[in-house]
């Protein structure tokens, strides 16, 4: 049975999309069948996986708001075993349009339940907010992976996120686990990064992934080519570390 992992943090620019695309692609590379679900209206995980948003007829919006079968929305990607559920800017309306609807928090969960056993992993790239889209993701998930940038104020805002996770656990999804905090964009040349690592480890202890993602320019270039790092530059440090993360995620079960 597939494992569903939300990549969530309401802070923007912490590496959610980079992690969703590259963890997804690396899991596929090591033999897992993976579905990458984009629920950010920006659609960066869609284009980052090589899907041309201009060509997308139906996206996750249609699944969440109009009950379109998710199977009709899934697209293959250039990476073998990696599939995408795309998002387009149309999804921006969903946050408000879902408010008056029945079972608005469980729509993604219901959709994913119909295909969960067909995949080894389903990775959900969340938007930078704690609104209904992120609630849908957390409600549908077995686990949440929280990327934290190795920067000043790294822990700022995390209490809000953890509070939302607790509310979802209490009211919507008792089984949701915090699988881990992923340290991202470490600049090894500064002491600051090391301080942040210590601080985050003190707070989250064994919930911090062993793999730490360094700053790597190839990781920031890859999206403009519509290629995950494992395709764009398989020899780069970025490809190495996301492969390490994929293996760690598999071992964690
Ligand atoms: P989020 O989805 O949380 O907003 P992104 O994954 O889009 O964050 O990352 C924000 C920016 O930082 C993007 O331009 C991305 O290419 C870049 N980036 C992310 N991770 C790295 C990294 N490890 N090294 C270099 N650039 C990165
Ligand atoms: Mg993003």
From TrEMBL:
Reaction(s) the record says it catalyses: ATP + H2O = ADP + phosphate + H(+)
Q: Pfam families annotated for this entry?
A: AAA_31 (PF13614)
The protein, known as: Sporulation initiation inhibitor protein Soj
Q: How does it assemble?
A: Dimerizes in the presence of ATP but not ADP; ATP-binding is required for double-stranded (ds)DNA-binding. Interacts with DnaA.
Q: Entry's InterPro entries?
A: AAA_dom, DNA_Partitioning_ATPase, P-loop_NTPase
Q: Which family does it belong to?
A: Belongs to the ParA family.
Domain AAA, by residue range, is: 3-178
């Amino acid at each position: 049975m597939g494992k569903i992992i939300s990549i969530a943090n309401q802070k923007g620019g912490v590496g959610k999309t980079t992690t969703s695309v590259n963890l997804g692609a690396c899991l596929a590379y090591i033999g897992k069948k993976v579905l990458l679900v984009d629920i950010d209206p920006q659609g960066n995980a869609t284009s980052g996986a090589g899907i041309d948003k201009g060509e997308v007829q139906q996206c996750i919006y249609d699944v969440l708001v109009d009950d379109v079968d998710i199977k009709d929305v899934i697209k293959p990607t250039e990476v073998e075993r990696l599939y995408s559920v795309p998002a387009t800017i149309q999804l921006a309306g969903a946050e408000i349009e879902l408010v008056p609807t029945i079972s608005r928090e469980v729509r993604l969960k219901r959709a994913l339940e119909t295909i969960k056993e067909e995949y080894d992993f389903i990775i959900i790239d969340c938007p930078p907010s704690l609104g209904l889209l992120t609630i849908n993701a957390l409600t549908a998930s077995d686990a949440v992976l929280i990327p934290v940038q190795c920067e000043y104020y790294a822990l700022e805002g995390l209490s809000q996120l953890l509070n939302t996770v607790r509310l979802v656990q209490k009211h919507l999804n008792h089984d949701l686990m915090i699988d881990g905090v992923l340290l991202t964009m470490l600049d090894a040349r500064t002491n600051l990064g090391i301080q942040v690592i210590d601080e985050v480890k003190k707070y989250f202890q064994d919930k911090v992934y062993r793999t730490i993602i360094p700053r790597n320019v190839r990781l920031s270039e890859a999206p403009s080519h519509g290629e995950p790092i494992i395709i764009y530059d398989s020899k780069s440090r970025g490809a190495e570390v996301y492969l390490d993360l994929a293996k760690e995620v598999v071992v964690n079960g």
